[in-house]
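User: Please write out a complete single-protein record containing the residue sequence and its fold in C-alpha coordinate form, without commentary.

AI:
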Amino acid sequence: MSNADIALMAHLMRRAGFGATRDELEQLVEQGYENVVENLINPGDPGVMPDDVIRRYHSEMAEMRELNSAGAYWMYRMVTTRNQLEEKLALFWHGLFATGYSKLNQASALVNQINTFRRHSLGSYKTMLVELSKDPAMIIWLDNHDNHHDNINENYGRELLELFSMGVGNYTEDDIKECARAFTGWTLGNVEYMSTRASRDSIWPYSRINWHFNYRDYDHDDGEKTFLGHTGNFNGEDIIDIIVQQEATARFICTRLFQFFAADEVDEAGESVINDMMASYFDSEYEIRSVMRTMFNSDYFRSEEARFARVKGPVELVVGAVRMAGTYQEPTFGADQLARQTMYMGQGIFQPPSVEGWHEGAEWIDSGALVERVNFVGKELGDPGNPGVKAIIDRMARQGQGILSPEEQVAACADLLGPLELSESTATSIREFASEQGPADLRDGSRTEADEQRIANLLRLLTATREYQLA
Protein backbone atom coordinates (compact mmCIF):
# COMPACT_ATOMS: atom_id res chain seq x y z
CA MET A 1 0.00 0.00 0.00
CA SER A 2 1.19 3.50 -0.78
CA ASN A 3 2.33 6.17 1.63
CA ALA A 4 -0.40 8.40 0.18
CA ASP A 5 -3.08 5.90 1.19
CA ILE A 6 -1.66 5.71 4.71
CA ALA A 7 -1.51 9.50 4.99
CA LEU A 8 -5.12 9.91 3.83
CA MET A 9 -6.40 7.26 6.23
CA ALA A 10 -4.42 8.80 9.10
CA HIS A 11 -6.05 12.14 8.29
CA LEU A 12 -9.52 10.59 8.35
CA MET A 13 -8.91 8.88 11.68
CA ARG A 14 -7.48 12.02 13.29
CA ARG A 15 -10.60 13.92 12.32
CA ALA A 16 -13.31 11.27 12.61
CA GLY A 17 -11.71 9.84 15.72
CA PHE A 18 -8.65 10.25 17.90
CA GLY A 19 -6.04 8.77 15.59
CA ALA A 20 -4.79 5.27 14.84
CA THR A 21 -1.61 3.24 15.11
CA ARG A 22 0.23 2.15 11.97
CA ASP A 23 -1.05 -1.41 12.27
CA GLU A 24 -4.61 -0.08 12.51
CA LEU A 25 -4.09 2.25 9.55
CA GLU A 26 -2.84 -0.58 7.37
CA GLN A 27 -5.90 -2.67 8.19
CA LEU A 28 -8.18 0.26 7.40
CA VAL A 29 -6.47 1.03 4.08
CA GLU A 30 -7.14 -2.55 2.98
CA GLN A 31 -10.86 -1.92 3.51
CA GLY A 32 -10.87 1.17 1.26
CA TYR A 33 -11.57 4.78 2.20
CA GLU A 34 -15.28 4.88 1.34
CA ASN A 35 -15.91 1.61 3.19
CA VAL A 36 -14.18 2.95 6.28
CA VAL A 37 -16.35 6.07 6.13
CA GLU A 38 -19.45 3.87 5.98
CA ASN A 39 -18.27 1.86 8.98
CA LEU A 40 -17.61 5.06 10.92
CA ILE A 41 -21.07 6.50 10.28
CA ASN A 42 -22.78 3.15 10.90
CA PRO A 43 -21.16 2.07 14.19
CA GLY A 44 -21.63 -1.39 15.65
CA ASP A 45 -20.62 -2.87 18.99
CA PRO A 46 -18.22 -0.36 20.58
CA GLY A 47 -16.35 -3.01 22.53
CA VAL A 48 -15.68 -0.58 25.36
CA MET A 49 -14.49 -1.44 28.84
CA PRO A 50 -17.55 -2.93 30.64
CA ASP A 51 -19.10 -0.99 33.50
CA ASP A 52 -18.89 -3.90 35.93
CA VAL A 53 -15.14 -4.14 35.34
CA ILE A 54 -14.66 -0.41 35.79
CA ARG A 55 -16.62 -0.37 39.04
CA ARG A 56 -14.54 -3.11 40.62
CA TYR A 57 -11.69 -0.60 40.63
CA HIS A 58 -13.65 2.65 40.71
CA SER A 59 -16.57 2.40 43.11
CA GLU A 60 -17.10 6.15 42.77
CA MET A 61 -18.14 5.58 39.15
CA ALA A 62 -21.27 3.69 40.20
CA GLU A 63 -23.25 6.76 41.22
CA MET A 64 -21.50 9.25 38.90
CA ARG A 65 -21.90 12.14 41.29
CA GLU A 66 -18.32 13.43 41.34
CA LEU A 67 -17.01 15.51 38.45
CA ASN A 68 -13.60 14.06 37.62
CA SER A 69 -14.61 10.41 38.14
CA ALA A 70 -17.52 10.92 35.73
CA GLY A 71 -15.13 12.59 33.30
CA ALA A 72 -12.70 9.69 33.61
CA TYR A 73 -15.55 7.26 32.95
CA TRP A 74 -16.19 8.97 29.62
CA MET A 75 -12.45 9.06 28.90
CA TYR A 76 -12.28 5.29 29.41
CA ARG A 77 -14.90 4.94 26.71
CA MET A 78 -13.11 7.27 24.29
CA VAL A 79 -9.84 5.43 24.88
CA THR A 80 -11.20 1.90 24.38
CA THR A 81 -14.06 2.25 21.89
CA ARG A 82 -14.05 0.79 18.39
CA ASN A 83 -16.61 3.45 17.38
CA GLN A 84 -14.36 6.49 17.39
CA LEU A 85 -16.70 8.75 15.41
CA GLU A 86 -19.54 8.02 17.83
CA GLU A 87 -17.46 9.40 20.71
CA LYS A 88 -16.03 12.26 18.66
CA LEU A 89 -19.55 13.35 17.79
CA ALA A 90 -20.62 13.07 21.43
CA LEU A 91 -17.73 15.44 22.18
CA PHE A 92 -18.90 17.76 19.41
CA TRP A 93 -22.46 17.86 20.76
CA HIS A 94 -21.11 18.44 24.28
CA GLY A 95 -19.38 21.56 22.99
CA LEU A 96 -22.35 22.74 20.94
CA PHE A 97 -25.01 22.04 23.59
CA ALA A 98 -22.69 23.05 26.41
CA THR A 99 -24.02 21.99 29.82
CA GLY A 100 -21.95 22.11 32.98
CA TYR A 101 -21.45 20.72 36.44
CA SER A 102 -21.23 24.16 38.06
CA LYS A 103 -25.00 24.62 38.02
CA LEU A 104 -26.16 21.02 38.29
CA ASN A 105 -23.74 20.16 41.11
CA GLN A 106 -23.89 16.47 40.21
CA ALA A 107 -22.48 14.59 37.26
CA SER A 108 -24.86 11.68 36.67
CA ALA A 109 -27.29 13.85 34.68
CA LEU A 110 -24.38 14.95 32.49
CA VAL A 111 -23.32 11.35 31.88
CA ASN A 112 -26.92 10.61 30.90
CA GLN A 113 -26.85 13.59 28.55
CA ILE A 114 -23.74 12.25 26.80
CA ASN A 115 -25.52 8.90 26.43
CA THR A 116 -28.34 10.77 24.70
CA PHE A 117 -25.88 12.49 22.37
CA ARG A 118 -24.28 9.14 21.59
CA ARG A 119 -27.61 7.48 20.77
CA HIS A 120 -28.76 10.24 18.45
CA SER A 121 -25.44 11.60 17.18
CA LEU A 122 -25.87 10.32 13.61
CA GLY A 123 -29.65 10.40 13.37
CA SER A 124 -32.17 13.13 12.67
CA TYR A 125 -31.27 16.60 13.89
CA LYS A 126 -34.95 17.04 14.64
CA THR A 127 -34.89 14.07 17.01
CA MET A 128 -31.69 15.36 18.60
CA LEU A 129 -33.27 18.75 19.36
CA VAL A 130 -36.40 17.14 20.78
CA GLU A 131 -34.33 14.88 23.04
CA LEU A 132 -32.16 17.84 24.04
CA SER A 133 -35.29 19.76 25.04
CA LYS A 134 -36.32 16.87 27.27
CA ASP A 135 -32.89 16.39 28.80
CA PRO A 136 -32.90 17.05 32.57
CA ALA A 137 -29.40 18.53 32.58
CA MET A 138 -30.37 21.01 29.86
CA ILE A 139 -33.66 21.82 31.58
CA ILE A 140 -31.76 22.80 34.72
CA TRP A 141 -28.87 24.46 32.85
CA LEU A 142 -31.19 26.82 30.95
CA ASP A 143 -33.97 27.10 33.54
CA ASN A 144 -36.84 25.55 31.65
CA HIS A 145 -38.13 24.10 34.93
CA ASP A 146 -38.92 27.76 35.70
CA ASN A 147 -40.78 28.27 32.42
CA HIS A 148 -44.52 28.36 33.26
CA HIS A 149 -47.66 29.09 31.28
CA ASP A 150 -48.38 32.26 33.27
CA ASN A 151 -44.74 33.35 33.70
CA ILE A 152 -42.43 32.36 30.86
CA ASN A 153 -38.66 32.02 31.15
CA GLU A 154 -36.96 32.74 27.83
CA ASN A 155 -33.54 31.21 28.55
CA TYR A 156 -33.99 27.91 26.75
CA GLY A 157 -36.02 29.37 23.89
CA ARG A 158 -33.35 32.00 23.27
CA GLU A 159 -30.40 29.60 23.28
CA LEU A 160 -32.26 27.01 21.23
CA LEU A 161 -32.48 29.58 18.45
CA GLU A 162 -29.20 31.43 18.93
CA LEU A 163 -26.71 28.70 19.88
CA PHE A 164 -28.30 25.35 19.03
CA SER A 165 -29.96 25.79 15.65
CA MET A 166 -30.26 29.05 13.69
CA GLY A 167 -27.78 31.67 14.87
CA VAL A 168 -28.20 35.38 15.52
CA GLY A 169 -30.07 37.40 12.92
CA ASN A 170 -32.50 34.72 11.79
CA TYR A 171 -35.31 35.28 14.31
CA THR A 172 -36.93 38.07 16.30
CA GLU A 173 -37.44 38.74 19.99
CA ASP A 174 -41.11 37.84 19.47
CA ASP A 175 -40.02 34.46 18.06
CA ILE A 176 -38.05 33.85 21.26
CA LYS A 177 -41.08 34.59 23.42
CA GLU A 178 -43.34 32.37 21.33
CA CYS A 179 -40.76 29.61 21.44
CA ALA A 180 -40.58 29.87 25.23
CA ARG A 181 -44.39 29.67 25.45
CA ALA A 182 -44.32 26.44 23.44
CA PHE A 183 -41.91 24.83 25.90
CA THR A 184 -43.88 25.64 29.04
CA GLY A 185 -44.68 22.47 30.97
CA TRP A 186 -41.44 20.75 29.82
CA THR A 187 -39.90 20.15 33.19
CA LEU A 188 -38.38 17.64 35.62
CA GLY A 189 -39.68 14.59 37.35
CA ASN A 190 -38.02 12.11 39.68
CA VAL A 191 -37.96 8.38 38.97
CA GLU A 192 -41.26 8.04 40.81
CA TYR A 193 -42.93 9.72 37.84
CA MET A 194 -41.73 6.99 35.52
CA SER A 195 -42.76 3.63 36.90
CA THR A 196 -42.62 1.42 39.96
CA ARG A 197 -39.91 -0.65 38.28
CA ALA A 198 -37.77 2.43 37.59
CA SER A 199 -37.94 3.37 41.25
CA ARG A 200 -37.00 -0.16 42.28
CA ASP A 201 -34.04 -0.31 39.89
CA SER A 202 -32.58 3.04 40.85
CA ILE A 203 -29.91 3.63 43.48
CA TRP A 204 -31.30 7.08 44.22
CA PRO A 205 -34.92 7.22 43.04
CA TYR A 206 -35.61 10.74 44.30
CA SER A 207 -34.21 14.26 44.12
CA ARG A 208 -31.59 15.45 41.66
CA ILE A 209 -29.66 12.18 41.43
CA ASN A 210 -32.23 10.73 39.04
CA TRP A 211 -33.94 13.61 37.33
CA HIS A 212 -36.17 12.64 34.44
CA PHE A 213 -38.22 14.59 31.93
CA ASN A 214 -41.81 15.23 32.90
CA TYR A 215 -44.43 16.97 30.78
CA ARG A 216 -47.08 18.82 32.78
CA ASP A 217 -49.99 19.64 30.54
CA TYR A 218 -51.59 21.84 33.18
CA ASP A 219 -48.53 24.12 33.09
CA HIS A 220 -48.36 24.33 29.29
CA ASP A 221 -49.51 27.43 27.44
CA ASP A 222 -51.81 25.92 24.81
CA GLY A 223 -52.79 29.25 23.27
CA GLU A 224 -52.16 30.25 19.66
CA LYS A 225 -48.58 31.23 18.83
CA THR A 226 -46.86 32.79 15.82
CA PHE A 227 -43.32 31.57 15.27
CA LEU A 228 -41.08 32.26 12.26
CA GLY A 229 -44.13 33.16 10.20
CA HIS A 230 -46.14 30.08 11.21
CA THR A 231 -49.25 30.30 13.39
CA GLY A 232 -50.80 27.51 15.40
CA ASN A 233 -51.39 25.98 18.80
CA PHE A 234 -47.74 24.93 19.01
CA ASN A 235 -46.00 22.68 21.51
CA GLY A 236 -42.25 22.16 21.70
CA GLU A 237 -42.13 19.45 19.01
CA ASP A 238 -43.96 21.77 16.61
CA ILE A 239 -41.43 24.54 17.21
CA ILE A 240 -38.53 22.17 16.48
CA ASP A 241 -40.28 20.90 13.36
CA ILE A 242 -40.36 24.49 12.07
CA ILE A 243 -36.75 25.17 13.13
CA VAL A 244 -35.21 22.21 11.30
CA GLN A 245 -36.91 23.22 8.05
CA GLN A 246 -35.06 26.55 7.97
CA GLU A 247 -32.12 27.12 5.63
CA ALA A 248 -30.44 29.03 8.47
CA THR A 249 -30.55 25.86 10.61
CA ALA A 250 -29.01 23.75 7.86
CA ARG A 251 -26.22 26.27 7.36
CA PHE A 252 -25.66 26.62 11.11
CA ILE A 253 -25.25 22.93 11.90
CA CYS A 254 -23.33 22.08 8.71
CA THR A 255 -20.90 24.95 9.34
CA ARG A 256 -20.32 23.90 12.93
CA LEU A 257 -19.71 20.28 11.87
CA PHE A 258 -17.34 21.46 9.14
CA GLN A 259 -15.36 23.60 11.58
CA PHE A 260 -15.06 20.77 14.10
CA PHE A 261 -14.16 18.00 11.65
CA ALA A 262 -12.69 19.68 8.56
CA ALA A 263 -11.04 23.06 9.24
CA ASP A 264 -11.03 25.75 11.90
CA GLU A 265 -11.50 28.45 9.26
CA VAL A 266 -13.98 28.30 6.35
CA ASP A 267 -12.61 29.48 3.01
CA GLU A 268 -14.31 29.60 -0.38
CA ALA A 269 -13.69 25.92 -1.04
CA GLY A 270 -15.04 25.11 2.40
CA GLU A 271 -18.22 27.07 1.68
CA SER A 272 -18.81 24.85 -1.33
CA VAL A 273 -18.55 21.73 0.85
CA ILE A 274 -20.94 23.26 3.40
CA ASN A 275 -23.45 23.89 0.61
CA ASP A 276 -23.22 20.21 -0.38
CA MET A 277 -23.66 19.22 3.27
CA MET A 278 -26.78 21.39 3.45
CA ALA A 279 -28.21 19.65 0.40
CA SER A 280 -27.63 16.28 2.10
CA TYR A 281 -29.28 17.63 5.26
CA PHE A 282 -32.51 18.40 3.42
CA ASP A 283 -32.43 15.39 1.05
CA SER A 284 -32.14 13.02 4.02
CA GLU A 285 -34.73 14.80 6.16
CA TYR A 286 -32.12 16.30 8.50
CA GLU A 287 -29.96 13.18 9.01
CA ILE A 288 -26.51 13.91 10.43
CA ARG A 289 -25.16 10.62 9.03
CA SER A 290 -25.75 11.84 5.48
CA VAL A 291 -24.17 15.19 6.24
CA MET A 292 -21.04 13.50 7.62
CA ARG A 293 -20.80 11.16 4.63
CA THR A 294 -20.88 14.13 2.26
CA MET A 295 -18.16 15.95 4.20
CA PHE A 296 -15.78 13.00 4.62
CA ASN A 297 -16.09 11.96 0.96
CA SER A 298 -15.65 15.47 -0.43
CA ASP A 299 -12.58 16.30 -2.50
CA TYR A 300 -11.88 19.13 -0.07
CA PHE A 301 -11.69 16.85 2.98
CA ARG A 302 -9.52 14.33 1.16
CA SER A 303 -7.11 16.94 -0.19
CA GLU A 304 -3.62 17.45 1.20
CA GLU A 305 -4.49 21.09 1.89
CA ALA A 306 -7.12 20.03 4.43
CA ARG A 307 -4.62 18.07 6.52
CA PHE A 308 -3.19 19.55 9.70
CA ALA A 309 -5.59 22.49 9.35
CA ARG A 310 -7.10 22.20 12.82
CA VAL A 311 -5.64 22.64 16.29
CA LYS A 312 -6.28 19.51 18.36
CA GLY A 313 -8.64 20.16 21.25
CA PRO A 314 -7.41 19.06 24.69
CA VAL A 315 -9.65 16.00 24.82
CA GLU A 316 -8.61 15.00 21.30
CA LEU A 317 -4.96 15.44 22.25
CA VAL A 318 -5.15 13.46 25.50
CA VAL A 319 -7.24 10.60 24.13
CA GLY A 320 -5.13 10.38 20.97
CA ALA A 321 -1.90 10.19 22.99
CA VAL A 322 -3.30 7.57 25.37
CA ARG A 323 -4.58 5.42 22.51
CA MET A 324 -1.21 5.66 20.75
CA ALA A 325 0.68 4.85 23.97
CA GLY A 326 -1.60 1.89 24.68
CA THR A 327 -2.25 2.93 28.27
CA TYR A 328 -5.50 2.93 30.29
CA GLN A 329 -6.78 -0.08 28.34
CA GLU A 330 -7.67 -1.64 31.70
CA PRO A 331 -9.01 -0.01 34.89
CA THR A 332 -6.20 2.17 36.20
CA PHE A 333 -5.98 3.89 39.54
CA GLY A 334 -5.51 7.59 38.93
CA ALA A 335 -7.64 7.56 35.77
CA ASP A 336 -9.41 10.65 37.08
CA GLN A 337 -6.18 12.48 36.23
CA LEU A 338 -7.07 12.15 32.54
CA ALA A 339 -10.09 14.38 33.06
CA ARG A 340 -8.03 16.76 35.18
CA GLN A 341 -5.41 17.02 32.44
CA THR A 342 -7.92 18.19 29.86
CA MET A 343 -9.11 20.81 32.35
CA TYR A 344 -5.55 22.06 32.85
CA MET A 345 -5.34 22.42 29.06
CA GLY A 346 -8.55 24.45 28.93
CA GLN A 347 -11.27 21.86 28.24
CA GLY A 348 -12.64 20.43 31.43
CA ILE A 349 -15.12 17.66 30.62
CA PHE A 350 -18.57 18.68 31.86
CA GLN A 351 -17.12 22.14 32.62
CA PRO A 352 -17.77 24.42 29.65
CA PRO A 353 -16.97 28.06 30.45
CA SER A 354 -20.46 29.20 29.40
CA VAL A 355 -23.50 28.18 27.41
CA GLU A 356 -21.46 29.06 24.31
CA GLY A 357 -19.10 26.17 24.96
CA TRP A 358 -15.39 26.42 24.31
CA HIS A 359 -13.67 28.79 21.91
CA GLU A 360 -11.71 26.42 19.72
CA GLY A 361 -9.00 26.60 17.07
CA ALA A 362 -5.94 28.70 17.89
CA GLU A 363 -7.57 29.77 21.16
CA TRP A 364 -6.72 26.35 22.59
CA ILE A 365 -3.10 27.42 22.66
CA ASP A 366 -1.65 29.77 25.23
CA SER A 367 1.58 29.63 27.21
CA GLY A 368 0.05 27.75 30.15
CA ALA A 369 -2.02 25.29 28.13
CA LEU A 370 0.86 24.56 25.77
CA VAL A 371 3.11 23.50 28.65
CA GLU A 372 0.42 21.12 29.91
CA ARG A 373 -0.13 19.70 26.41
CA VAL A 374 3.56 19.09 25.83
CA ASN A 375 4.21 17.60 29.28
CA PHE A 376 1.28 15.17 29.22
CA VAL A 377 1.81 13.79 25.74
CA GLY A 378 5.57 13.66 26.24
CA LYS A 379 5.09 11.57 29.37
CA GLU A 380 2.78 9.11 27.59
CA LEU A 381 4.85 8.69 24.43
CA GLY A 382 8.26 9.17 26.02
CA ASP A 383 8.04 6.02 28.11
CA PRO A 384 9.41 2.95 26.28
CA GLY A 385 7.62 0.73 28.78
CA ASN A 386 4.19 1.75 27.47
CA PRO A 387 2.77 -0.90 25.09
CA GLY A 388 2.21 1.48 22.18
CA VAL A 389 5.69 2.96 22.43
CA LYS A 390 7.21 -0.52 22.55
CA ALA A 391 5.18 -1.43 19.43
CA ILE A 392 6.61 1.59 17.59
CA ILE A 393 10.16 0.61 18.57
CA ASP A 394 9.59 -3.01 17.50
CA ARG A 395 8.22 -1.88 14.16
CA MET A 396 11.20 0.40 13.59
CA ALA A 397 13.48 -2.55 14.26
CA ARG A 398 11.62 -4.66 11.68
CA GLN A 399 11.55 -1.93 9.04
CA GLY A 400 15.23 -1.04 9.36
CA GLN A 401 18.37 -3.11 9.43
CA GLY A 402 18.46 -3.05 13.20
CA ILE A 403 20.95 -0.20 13.62
CA LEU A 404 19.33 3.14 12.83
CA SER A 405 21.24 6.33 12.17
CA PRO A 406 19.97 9.57 13.73
CA GLU A 407 18.40 10.61 10.40
CA GLU A 408 16.67 7.23 10.06
CA GLN A 409 15.37 7.48 13.62
CA VAL A 410 13.80 10.89 12.96
CA ALA A 411 12.19 9.78 9.70
CA ALA A 412 10.78 6.59 11.20
CA CYS A 413 9.45 8.27 14.36
CA ALA A 414 7.75 11.07 12.41
CA ASP A 415 6.26 8.51 10.03
CA LEU A 416 4.88 6.17 12.69
CA LEU A 417 3.66 8.97 14.95
CA GLY A 418 1.50 10.50 12.19
CA PRO A 419 2.75 10.39 9.57
CA LEU A 420 3.80 13.92 10.50
CA GLU A 421 4.77 16.39 7.79
CA LEU A 422 7.70 18.18 9.40
CA SER A 423 8.80 21.62 8.25
CA GLU A 424 12.45 21.95 7.35
CA SER A 425 13.19 23.96 10.49
CA THR A 426 11.48 21.39 12.72
CA ALA A 427 13.19 18.46 11.00
CA THR A 428 16.59 20.15 11.34
CA SER A 429 16.12 20.70 15.07
CA ILE A 430 14.96 17.13 15.66
CA ARG A 431 17.86 15.72 13.64
CA GLU A 432 20.34 17.77 15.67
CA PHE A 433 18.93 16.28 18.86
CA ALA A 434 19.04 12.77 17.37
CA SER A 435 22.66 13.28 16.34
CA GLU A 436 23.58 14.16 19.90
CA GLN A 437 21.98 10.88 21.04
CA GLY A 438 23.74 8.84 18.37
CA PRO A 439 22.71 5.65 16.52
CA ALA A 440 20.19 3.22 18.03
CA ASP A 441 20.79 -0.51 17.88
CA LEU A 442 17.37 -2.17 17.89
CA ARG A 443 18.52 -5.67 16.95
CA ASP A 444 17.26 -8.54 19.09
CA GLY A 445 19.93 -9.47 21.58
CA SER A 446 21.75 -6.18 21.13
CA ARG A 447 19.01 -3.74 22.07
CA THR A 448 19.50 -2.01 25.40
CA GLU A 449 17.25 0.15 27.50
CA ALA A 450 19.35 3.11 26.38
CA ASP A 451 18.58 2.33 22.72
CA GLU A 452 14.86 2.16 23.42
CA GLN A 453 15.02 5.37 25.43
CA ARG A 454 16.68 7.13 22.48
CA ILE A 455 13.59 6.38 20.37
CA ALA A 456 11.22 7.35 23.19
CA ASN A 457 13.10 10.62 23.62
CA LEU A 458 12.59 11.40 19.95
CA LEU A 459 8.89 10.61 20.20
CA ARG A 460 8.66 12.88 23.24
CA LEU A 461 10.37 15.72 21.36
CA LEU A 462 8.19 15.27 18.27
CA THR A 463 5.01 15.58 20.34
CA ALA A 464 6.18 19.06 21.39
CA THR A 465 6.26 20.27 17.78
CA ARG A 466 3.69 22.46 16.09
CA GLU A 467 3.08 19.67 13.59
CA TYR A 468 1.94 17.22 16.29
CA GLN A 469 -0.40 19.76 17.88
CA LEU A 470 -2.40 19.98 14.64
CA ALA A 471 -4.88 17.42 13.36
Notes: The first helix runs from residue 3 to 16.
